[in-house]
C-alpha cells in the first residue's frame, strides 16, 4: 500500500511565518514542481527525502502550490466527474523527442531502405511484434513461458491452454489495432477490440465485447488489498462516449491552447481505460492496445515493433503505483505519464538496438554469401529467411509462417524453403501434417561449402 499525501494547508507560507520562521529558507527550496534530479515524486516517495524537522503537511503544501501553478486541465473522468491535470516533465519531453525522431512511418520507411524492403524489415523485427502480445498477457497473469509462446505464434498452432489462448488473443488484438488505425474511436471499436482479444479464452469470465453492468469489479494488489474501485457501471457507456469525443478531437493544432502530443494523448487514453475499467476482465490489455492504436493512427508505425509491456512486466509494482499515485493526488496524471514516458524511452532504445543489430548481422552475412558464392544462387526471400534463422529470432520455419511473414503465396514460400534445403543450408522433417524447416548448424554449412 502507498502512503497517501497529508491534508493541504491553504496558505502554507503564512503558517510557516507564524509557526516556524527559522525554516523559511528550507521551505523555499522545496517550492518547485520537480526535485533537483528532475523527478516528479509522489508523497509516498518524497516523504523520505524531506529535510529532518520540517512539518510534512507544510512541506507537501508548498510543493503542491508550486505544481498547481504549472498543471493544466486535460480531461475529465469518472462519476462524479474528476478533472485530470498534468505538466510536462523532462522524461516526457525526452520521450516525445525520441518518438518523433525514431518511430514515425517515414523513419520506418527509411529503415526499410537500409535493409532492402518493407516486408524484409517486418520479418526481421517480427519478434518485437510478438513480444508485446506475449508480455502484455504475462503482465495479466499468463503463465506460459516466452519460448513456448514464441513457438505458438511462429508456427500458428492451435493454443492448448487458457494462457496460450490469452497470448494468441492479445496478438490478434494488436493486429486488429493496426488494421483499425484509420477508424475513429467509438464505444463499438473498444468493444470489438476486447472481443477480438478475449473471445474463446473463458467467455464466462470475460464476457467478450460486453461492458460491465454491475459494480462488483475492483482492482486488487498482490496482497488482496483493494486499490481501485472503478466508477459506477451506471453511465459507463455515456462516459466512454465522452472519452471517444475527446480522443477524436484535434489536439495537434499548434496554434491552439489545447495542443497535446499524440504520445501523451495515447498514454492518457491508456490511463482512462484502466481507470474506468469498462470490462469484467482484460482491461489492461485493452488499455495498452488502445495506446498502440492511437500511435498507429498518428502514423508512428514503428510502434508495431516497440514492446512497452516487456518493460512494464519487469516493474509491475511501479506500473500499478503510477495509477495509484494519480488517483490519490487529485487525479494528477503526471505520475502515470512520467512513468510511461520512462518506459517508452527504454522501449524505443531496445527497438533501435534490435534494428542496428539486424543491420550489422545482415552486412556480415552478405559478406559470407558473396565469399561463398551463394549470393547469386539465393532469391531475396531465401536471403531473408536465412538471415532470420542465423540471427536466432526463429528456429523453425513452415511454408505457412513464411507465407504470412513475407506476404507471398504458399507455393513461393515452400519453394524458397526447399531451395534452402537443396543448397545444404536448411534441413527439414515432417511434424504431423506439415514440413518443419530449420537451419543446419553454421559450422556444418561452412564445412560443406569449403569442400
Question: Can you put this structure into words, describing what you see?
Answer:
The protein is mainly alpha-helical and 451 residues long. The protein folds into three domains: 59 residues, no CATH class; 266 residues, Fic-like fold (Orthogonal Bundle); 75 residues, Arc Repressor Mutant, subunit A. It is built from 22 helices and six strands. The strands form three sheets. A two-stranded antiparallel ribbon has the order 1-2. The chain has a two-stranded antiparallel ribbon with strand order 3-4. Helix 20 packs across helix 21. The longest helix has 39 residues. The chain is elongated and about 90 Å long.
Strand order of the largest sheet: 1-2
Number of strands: 6
Please outline the major beta sheet: 2 strands, antiparallel
Question: What is the typical, i.e. mean, pLDDT?
Answer: 87
Keywords: ATP-binding, Nucleotide-binding
Protein name: Fic family protein
GO molecular function: ATP binding
InterPro entries: Fido, Fido-like_dom_sf, Fido_containing
What are the defining features of this structure?
Fido-like_dom_sf; two-stranded antiparallel sheet; Fido; mainly alpha; Arc Repressor Mutant, subunit A; 3 domains; Fic-like fold; 6% strand; 58% helix; 451 residues; 6 strands
The gist of it:
This is Fic family protein. By secondary structure, the chain is mainly α.
Give the SSE map.
Elements: H1 12-19, H2 24-29, H3 43-46, H4 56-68, E1 72-77, E2 82-86, H5 90-102, H6 105-115, H7 118-124, H8 126-139, H9 146-155, H10 162-179, H11 187-198, H12 203-206, E3 219-220, E4 226-228, H13 236-248, H14 262-276, H15 283-297, H16 308-314, H17 316-328, H18 334-372, H19 380-391, H20 399-406, H21 410-422, E5 426-431, E6 434-439, H22 442-449
Antiparallel strand pairs: 1-2, 3-4, 5-6
